Amino acid sequence: MILIVVKFTIRPEHSEDWLSRVSEFTEATRAEPGNLFFEWSRSVDVPHQFVLVEGFASAEAGKQHVESQHFKTAMAWMPEVIATTPEIINAEIPDTGWNTMAELTPAR
């Protein structure tokens, strides 16, 4: 699996509508055959920062994502909205998706 985590810091005037701006990109990516997950969160520590966690079934699936039209479209408009160059972690790991955490379960 390819695991990607990206931190996007958005210009303050655009942070409230960031999730609606990326909704088309998000839905198109989630529809890709090799996409395992594509999830946005908002930082509780850094104002105007969003964190994207992505999983792709293989390096080939990740390559197809970057070559897709919706990826290219997003990369074309995002420079006008981001405040800093995004930070990224991109790693190939042996897992195939989410597992359950062994150290913690809900109380009964």
Automatic annotation (TrEMBL):
EC number: 1.-.-.-
GO molecular function, one term: monooxygenase activity
Keywords: Monooxygenase, Oxidoreductase
Domain of life according to the entry: Bacteria
Enzyme class at the top of the EC tree: oxidoreductase
Annotated source species: Prauserella oleivorans
Pfam families according to UniProt: ABM
Protein name listed in UniProt: Quinol monooxygenase
Sequence ranges assigned to domain ABM in this UniProt record: 2-90
Coiled-coil regions listed in the entry: none
Keyword DNA repair: no
PANTHER family linked to this entry: ABM DOMAIN-CONTAINING PROTEIN, QUINOL MONOOXYGENASE YGIN-RELATED
